[in-house]
Design a protein that fits this description.
heterodimer; A: about 150 residues; alpha+beta; Glutaredoxin; 4-stranded mixed beta sheet; 5 helices; about 20% strand; globular; B: about 70 residues; two-stranded antiparallel sheet
């Protein structure tokens, strides 16, 4: 059964048509992507996440989904800084360092859509004061936002 | 908001973490309410914030003193 019903898929497709600018690549990392799979809840969550991302990528020609295995492709995971799964690197015109860890279901499906659209646009409408402060950062900042789907 | 800051600055990267799927991380950072935001392991806050306050927290965590105050 698909994650998105026809009505929701049509809504998301229209948003993508209206709001996507640059192409977006979703680099999805699961413990495994076929063949030998790990049993248990983690594998089920990863599989369901893959289904969600596959459906989302199918709603716009500007979205490409690449599937990776953390186990089989450790060098690719390292390139994207991925150490846990399921993980999705949301890449636009460049890699802005935006990652989603877990399954983007429930409220977090909307979060995923916003991430895709924001990364695609690539130039956030922040206040000038905010841009000034960000431009003065002398050290790196790693933001972790903990969310739940309900 | 957090993702926008990462897009705006090459010094910022942002992870969205589904807490219930990573209980070890949720426990490590004492996530009892969401959204909970951790910046550089040193600064944390809970709940949506106005842009200026959010940037202030990030600036504070990244060692910049002249950011907007977190209470803004």
């Amino acid at each position: 059964m698909p994650f998105l019903n026809d009505q929701d898929a049509a809504f998301v497709r229209k948003r993508f048509e209206q709001e996507l600018s640059h192409d977006v690549t979703l680099e999805f990392f699961a413990p495994s992507t076929g063949g030998l799979t790990l049993p248990g809840q983690d594998a089920e969550i990863a599989e369901y996440t893959k289904q969600i991302l596959t459906e989302v990528a199918g709603l716009s020609p500007k979205i490409q989904l690449n599937l990776h295995s953390l186990i089989a492709e450790p060098e690719v995971a390292q390139r994207f800084g991925i150490t846990r799964t399921p993980a999705t690197a949301v890449i636009g015109a460049e890699d802005y360092g935006v990652r989603f860890y877990g399954m983007p279901a429930g409220y977090e499906f909307a979060t995923l859509l916003e991430l895709i659209i924001d990364v695609s646009k690539g130039s956030p409408a922040l206040a000038e004061g905010s841009k000034d402060v960000l431009g003065k950062l002398q050290e790196d900042a790693h933001i972790q936002v903990f969310v739940t789907p309900t | 908001m957090a993702a926008l800051l990462a897009i705006a600055s090459p010094r910022v990267r942002t992870d969205i973490v589904e807490a219930s799927e990573f209980p070890d991380m949720a426990e490590r950072y004492n996530v009892y309410a969401v959204p909970k935001i951790i910046v550089n392991e040193t600064t944390e806050f809970v709940g949506a914030q106005p842009e200026g306050a959010f940037v202030g927290y990030v600036a504070q965590a990244a060692g910049l003193q002249e950011g907007p105050p977190p209470s803004e």
